[in-house]
Write a structure and sequence with these properties.
283 residues, Erythroid Transcription Factor GATA-1, Chain A, mainly alpha, 0% strand, Retinoid X Receptor
Amino acid sequence: RRVRRNLTYTCRANRNCPIDQHHRNQCQYCRLKKCLKVGMRREDRAVLGSAMQRSSLSPIAAVQRGRLPPSQHPNPAQYALVNGDPLNGHSYLSGYISLLLRAEPYPTSRYGSQCMQPNNIMGIENICELAARLLFSAVEWARNIPFFPDLQITDQVALLRLVWSELFVLNAAQCAMPLHVAPLLAAAGLHASPMSADRVVAFMDHIRIFQEQVEKLKALHVDSAEYSCIKAIVLFTTDACGLSDAAHIESLQEKSQCALEEYVRSQYPNQPTRFGKLLLRLP
């Protein structure tokens, strides 16, 4: 934020304040100094900040206006697995999962250790930033998986508009978002937009459902390949309005479901009901 907003901080002590989990917010000058010391680059933060500012649009609107172009991705017809692929498979569907995994933004490294430490206390501002990154990562992932970038742009937007909240839930569970985040999300939402009593009740109900869904997914110990398949199943839905080729999108959903089923049967042979449980946990 200091880089993006071109702020100047001043240390009130001797420019050597302790910066740890419990004191990191007491001196912004020393906190920035430590960030730069351990390798944070100003230009990287400036690029990230300007990209997010250019998208005062929502992530979905950014897709619609072409501001999040898809990265180079393999031809979906070429599903050969590379050496050392964790799937240890050779089928067409295993190759499909491999490409889904390559599109993953890997939240544990992207968002840092904060996301993975249940006992870490995060402030509202940190929570809002994490939530925004989770949402943008869902769009980034979709833009880089097989087949989705080849759909009509209107279909891409329609699908993301419909399922962004489900993808957010799955990303939150996948990065092991601490459970105390839900109340903070609620507090941030209520602070940002005053609501009537009825809307507050409905909003808090959504937060409760969000927390329950994340807890249930965590309890299943879903692995990365399963998360990728589940997100593809959620994304390729024919429930969106105005799709230009609903039959094709339905076939992509079926492909994703078949890939998940094959993977689960191969990797979890002692859990015959696991595939069904995963489908029941779809947000």
